[in-house]
């Protein structure tokens, strides 16, 4: 069993068996038929993944690795907030007629700020510090910008990353205000595990730990029977992560430069309805 499966199963069982139901509260999300999308949830789940030991992809079902990496690069490398720059359609529900999701996600990472060393956006500041100030305790990105929330079509879910270099290893804390555990939990874990590997490689470091802090970890009511069926699957060993060692510039990475080798997973084909 992969460590990611072990963590995922523990999280899901804890939420289903002991979580709080918001069925008697007013909630914002709706199903496509207009019905309120209620959840069972737990406050503040913290998961740790040692990227030096294994890659944290679950095997109870397939995580769409290429699409996850494509979205990661859309946000962190292209710094885009337009779905026309994205190859999947996961953001289409929040895009306007021009394809924009507003001043969200990639837009915020691309805003430049002035520092003593020069002008950087958030991504370039991180890359600069990892090479020049690896002992810094200030290597942080934040896209939950209150001044621009009114111009975002969706408030950021995964909103902040703290990077820390210890003993030549790059560690990261991903802070997430809200996580749809059935649909997006492992998707986000896989994305930020790849980001740590990429940033570590171009900075001359080794990938260390990814710590995932989720404030509101929830399972939607209509997803619970599907999750129960998925949890009956047989977890398999973790896949091996492969990265093109020749890439030394973060902006030169493509989805073809990373891959999962020997990724075996359960054939769980049920689709989860998405609440909007």
Can you describe this structure in just a few lines?
With 276 residues, this protein is an alpha+beta fold. It has 6 helices and 10 strands.
Write structural notes for this entry:
The chain is globular. Helices cover 26% and strands 24% of the residues. The longest helix has 22 residues, at 181-202. It has 276 residues and is of the alpha+beta class. It has helices spanning 3-18, 65-76, 106-109, 122-132, 181-202, 224-230, and strands at residues 20-21, 39-50, 113-115, 118-120, 140-142, 158-166, 169-180, 206-220, 240-243, 258-261.
Salient structural properties:
alpha+beta; 6 helices; 10 strands; 26% helix; Thymidylate synthase
